[in-house]
Design a protein that fits this description.
It is a single chain. The longest helix is centred in the C-terminal third of the chain and has 20 residues. The chain is of the alpha+beta class. Helices cover 30% and strands 27% of the residues. It has a single domain, classed as archaeoglobus fulgidus dsm 4304 superfamily (archaeoglobus fulgidus dsm 4304 fold), CATH 3.30.2170.10. Strand 1 and strand 2 form a beta hairpin.
């Protein structure tokens, strides 16, 4: 539904690439927190739809207790989206909605999990990494499908819970293919920022239950976007 001309698109791409290149040196794949002090984890997801010649988006954030897995808070935001979907630049489309939702939180998450990639990205600045500079918290990327980079395929992990294979591109680990549930498709996790891959894996696995291959905060945020989108579609 969003249509822009080639010159405008080229200008946006140059601006977006420059911002990603500026942020990349500030990305730190190491922990700035103690796992034993982790209490609140937020899951973030965004959904879109077209109506009346406009594209709308809704962002949902679900905060859960890391220990009990109970929902602590749910918030959402919605609005007209003006940036088209451009592969590799998802953050520029989603961040306005995400930050509108973040501002509604009354609880302060210790970590944010995003339905998408982080360091596992062509320029290492996926939505989870990019958003870290806005939410000012450690972040983890959790993707349901694989983003192929430089024509490198992932290696399927063994068929047992917790099995994983690292995604190695040009001798650098971009992320991890993780089997969270036996005999179910793996997920693809990557550091967002201010966290290492081992800790990201541990946190994800500790938030898996029998209901889904996805960690609880991401799954619940995804489910919430369907509910919110349906309600908004009926009113807009």
């Amino acid at each position: 539904m969003i249509s822009i001309d080639k010159d405008t698109l080229d200008s946006l791409l140059e601006k977006f690439r420059n911002e990603q290149q500026t942020l990349l040196p500030e990305v730190k794949l190491k922990n700035i927190f103690l796992t034993e002090k982790l209490r609140l984890v937020a899951g973030v997801d965004t959904a879109y739809w077209d109506a009346k010649d406009k594209t709308y988006g809704a962002c949902c954030i679900v905060v859960i207790d890391f220990i009990t897995h109970e929902v602590v808070e749910k918030v959402n935001s919605f609005g007209v989206v003006t940036i088209p979907y451009i592969p590799g630049f998802l953050a520029f489309r989603e961040l306005p909605l995400i930050m509108d939702a973040v501002k509604k939180l009354t609880k302060q998450p210790d970590i944010y999990m995003f339905d998408g990639n982080g360091y596992l990205h062509h320029r290492h600045i996926g939505i989870a990494t990019h958003a870290s500079f806005y939410v000012d918290k450690p972040t983890i990327g959790v993707a349901k499908s694989y983003l192929k980079i430089k024509d490198v395929d992932f290696t399927m992990p063994d068929n047992h819970v917790g099995a994983y294979t690292d995604i190695l591109i040009d001798n650098e680990i971009y992320g991890r293919t993780l089997r969270t549930t036996k005999s179910v498709k793996p997920i693809f996790i990557s550091c967002g920022n201010w966290i290492d891959l081992e800790t990201s894996t541990d946190i994800v696995m500790r938030l898996i239950n029998k209901e889904s291959r996805l960690p609880i905060p991401v799954r619940m945020a995804d489910l919430e976007t369907h509910v919110v989108r349906k309600k908004l579609q009926e009113t807009l």
